[in-house]
Amino acid sequence: MSEMDRSGNLIIVSGPSGAGKSVLASRVLQVMPHLKFSVSYTTRAPRGAEQNGVEYFFVSREAFQALIQGNDLLEFAEVYGNHYGTSREFVDGLLRQGEDVLLDVDIQGASIVRQKRPDAVGVFILPPSYRILRDRLMRRSLDAGFVIEQRLKIARREIRHYNDYDYLIINEEINSSTLELQSIILGARCRTAARRERAESVIATFGGIDAEDP
Question: Where does the chain show beta strands of DSSP type E?
Fold first, then answer.
């Protein structure tokens, strides 16, 4: 049995806006085989060079409501006045193929997914300090000043939930943080539960788990 005979792992990454989730996700996706990004639906407008179907599926509010009514979303939430949701079939299809799926969602969405998928691995990304988080948000130049203040206010509440996750990365230096996230994903692939079928096929070559000693 090969590694691709396994079911994939769902890796949930959360943290306050500006903590570096998107950068970390992009870096590990570039270097890790059999890791895919869960492209979510959103009603917000694209930012910068974002492309439909790459960072997000950009849809109207009406189309988003249709997804909710059709039970097509694994989770959905309203964040900063916009709606975000994870496609159930998109994620499950990749997992069935043996691909690990990286899901970047907020605290609320992560909680919903983990209730439905308790075997998912939760990773919280924490900035080194409030001041550094503020500086990062300012340097991005993606939001007006009042929006940045709103994000910082929400970040104060979000960071209290770090202990709800399996792993914590304090994103001070991007290379070190990337290696930490890679290690978490590799570790998830080595969990006993994730490799049970392969272990059983190995044990079968010994005559089975109940085999008598020769």
Answer: 10-14, 35-37, 40-42, 56-58, 73-79, 82-87, 100-104, 121-126, 167-170
Structure tokens at 60: 């109207």
User: CA distances (Å), 126 to each of 12, 99, 153, in order?
Assistant: 14, 26, 15
In 3D space, the residue among 60, 39, 59, 153 whose CA is nearest the CA of residue 105 turns out to be: 39
Residue given tokens 């010994």 in the structure block = 206
Q: What Å distances lie between residue 201 and 1, 39, 157, 205, CA to CA?
A: 7, 34, 47, 7
DSSP state of 211: P
On whether the CB atoms of residues 36 and 94 are closer than 8 A, the answer is yes
**Residue 143: its pLDDT value, please?**
63
d(CA 178, CA 93): 26
For the segment 121-154, what is each residue's pLDDT rounded down to a tens digit?
999 999 999 999 999 888 876 666 778 888 899 9
Give the 3-state DSSP-derived string for 34-46, with helices as H, strands as E and coil as C: CEEECCEEECCCC
Q: Which of 83, 78, 13 is nearest to 45 (CA)?
A: 83
